[in-house]
Design a protein that fits this description.
35% helix; five-stranded mixed β-sheet; alpha/beta; 6 helices; two-stranded antiparallel ribbon
């Protein structure tokens, strides 16, 4: 069995995701990448607003609700204290390689790594071309 890298994303107590985690989840699903174990990390600093008042307050919380079926069967949920030391020293989202020696952190780096991994896993999809090609936009605008 092949060892998988681990993808860590932040989630609040009420299953809301910060925009960065939501972006990672969306791209992970879009790319149909199966080479990562996904770990949801309960946020240390949860949104100060109650979950029911997110849209009613003037201090809007920049979090979005995670659909129940999105990650429920393919991920685990841990607290910050349960994270490996290498992840505790990084900002989320983060990817730790299968050996646990290298941590890729930051939204841009994680998204790039997801696309590169998914593209290598299934080159016939041409994900890199699809995601960065201007031809896609030209065809939509015509």
């Amino acid at each position: 069995m092949e060892d998988k890298s681990t993808l860590y994303i932040e989630v609040s107590q009420c299953s809301h995701l910060p925009a960065s985690s939501w972006s990672v989840v969306f791209l992970h699903q879009f790319c149909a990448c199966t080479t990562y174990n996904i770990v949801q990390v309960k946020a240390q600093n949860t949104c100060s607003l109650s979950c029911s008042n997110i849209n009613q307050s003037s201090n809007r919380c920049s979090q979005m609700k995670l659909p129940q079926t999105t990650l429920s069967s393919s991920s685990s949920l841990v607290t910050w204290s349960e994270l490996p030391e290498i992840v505790k020293s990084c900002d989320l989202p983060a990817i730790v390689d299968a050996k646990g020696l290298v941590c890729y952190t930051g939204l841009c780096t994680v998204l790039r790594r997801l696309v590169m991994t998914a593209d290598a896993q299934n080159p016939s999809r041409n994900l890199i071309s699809l995601l960065v090609s201007l031809d896609v936009y030209r065809s939509v605008l015509k």
